[in-house]
Inverse folding.
């Protein structure tokens, strides 16, 4: 019985590794598929954060796209988090892949490393879209408030 379970698990992991490249396409410009289909996308769960100067703020957001009537978690997708000051100047940018099981991208902003003074900063989490799969780009915004 244990050997069958291990065999099924190995077959599953093999299948995932074979199709993984199609899900992990790098960010690129989005155009319609040859069929003319595009899929709307969204990032949900990004919230405003407050932390003291010298501490680290944590941001997370879940990426999904709509296929028909169903919002599908967008696993293995590159998401980007950018930090801007109140004048719109980009202070930080990080791109990484979201969680394979939850489609949630987790990011940290180290206020000490970035030498952020007390004040409000704009945070933008985005997905650049995927031309080959017809998935539209999207973004969500929030605020980081640094206190003294």
């Amino acid at each position: 019985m244990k050997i069958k379970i291990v065999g099924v698990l190995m077959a599953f992991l093999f299948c995932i590794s074979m199709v993984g490249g199609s899900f992990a396409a790098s960010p690129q410009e989005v155009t319609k598929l040859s069929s003319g289909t595009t899929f709307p996308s969204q990032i949900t769960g990004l919230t405003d954060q407050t932390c003291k100067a010298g501490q680290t703020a944590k941001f997370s957001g879940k990426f999904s796209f709509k296929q028909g009537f169903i919002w599908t978690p967008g696993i293995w997708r590159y998401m980007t988090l950018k930090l801007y000051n109140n004048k719109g100047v980009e202070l930080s940018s990080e791109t990484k892949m979201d969680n394979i099981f939850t489609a949630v991208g987790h990011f940290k902003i180290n206020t000490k490393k970035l030498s952020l003074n007390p004040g409000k900063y704009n945070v933008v989490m985005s997905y650049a879209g995927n031309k080959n799969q017809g998935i539209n780009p999207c973004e969500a915004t929030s605020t980081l408030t640094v206190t003294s």
Notes: The first strand starts at residue 41 and ends at 44. The radius of gyration is 18 Å. The beta strands are 41-44, 49-52, 56-67, 70-73, 78-84, 90-97, 104-110, 119-127, 138-147. The chain has one domain: 26-147.
